[in-house]
């Protein structure tokens, strides 16, 4: 008999009814927790999804004096889907997410916005922290890409830093613009035309 059952047994004959109500309440709470988790987490990658990102970013100015935002876009997803199948495309996205999980924690929060787009938010940081995080992320991605699994994950990234009074939407926009510059540079290095 657990502590709750012991306590309720002291209440008398109505304790079975109370136990039943507690069990139903617990089942209901667990059901809603699972629903919330499905709403907040991206099922494919395990990262929080865009809903969680928007909730987090909505009041970031109340929690952070500074912030860094890094916008990521997985390269070649269409190629993987069209030529190797959607399973391979999913593995590509999962590898990108895993590389972000490797650097997330504490004041570093990563999200899948949708499709092949991801974002990482660093709160209460210095601008140099963004460069350090990007270097650690690239090293982690290189390690993941060293696996002999036929999935080479290439990701374009752009970052923006905001000090006191920053606008998170403007930071995201600037990070997105810088990501496209990086994507163009990466394609040029591979001899591809920018799209």
- What profile does the largest beta sheet have? 4 strands, antiparallel
Seen as an oligomer or otherwise, the chain set is: single chain
- In DSSP terms (H or I, runs of 4 or more residues), the helix count works out at 8
**Approximately how much beta-strand content do the residues carry?**
15-25%
Would you count the extended β strands for me?
4
* First and last CA, distance: 66 Å
Q: Give the topology string: H per helix, E per strand.
A: HHHHEHHEEHEH
Q: Order of strands in the sheet with the most strands?
A: 2-3-1-4
Helix % is: 55-70%
Low-confidence stretches: none
Radius of gyration: 22 Å
Which geometry do the CA atoms define? extended
**What class do helices, strands and sheet pairing give?**
alpha+beta
Mean pLDDT: 87
Task: Kindly describe this structure.
This protein has 195 residues and is α+β, with helices and mostly antiparallel strands. The chain has helices spanning 3-9, 15-40, 50-58, 60-63, 77-84, 86-101, 127-145, 168-189; strands spanning 67-74, 108-114, 117-123, 155-162. A 4-stranded antiparallel β-sheet has the order 2-3-1-4, with helices on both faces. Helix 5 (77-84) runs antiparallel to helix 6 (86-101) and helix 6 crosses helix 7 (127-145). The protein starts with a helix and ends in a 6-residue tail after the last helix.
């Amino acid at each position: 008999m657990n502590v709750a059952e012991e306590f309720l047994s002291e209440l008398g004959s109505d304790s079975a009814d109370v136990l039943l109500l507690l069990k139903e309440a617990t089942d209901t709470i667990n059901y809603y927790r699972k629903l919330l988790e499905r709403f907040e987490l991206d099922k494919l990658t395990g990262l929080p999804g865009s809903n969680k990102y928007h909730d987090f970013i909505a009041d970031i100015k109340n929690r952070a004096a500074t912030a860094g935002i890094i916008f990521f876009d997985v390269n070649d997803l269409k190629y993987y889907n069209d030529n190797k199948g959607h399973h391979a495309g999913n593995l590509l996205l999962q590898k990108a997410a895993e590389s972000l999980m490797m650097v997330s924690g504490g004041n570093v929060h990563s999200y899948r916005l949708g499709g092949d787009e991801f974002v990482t938010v660093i709160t209460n940081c210095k601008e140099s922290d963004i460069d350090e995080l990007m270097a650690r992320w690239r090293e982690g991605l290189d390690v993941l890409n060293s696996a002999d699994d036929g999935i080479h994950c290439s990701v374009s990234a752009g970052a923006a830093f905001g000090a006191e009074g920053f606008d998170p939407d403007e930071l995201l926009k600037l990070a997105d613009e810088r990501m496209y510059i990086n994507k163009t540079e990466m394609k040029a290095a591979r001899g591809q035309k920018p799209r």
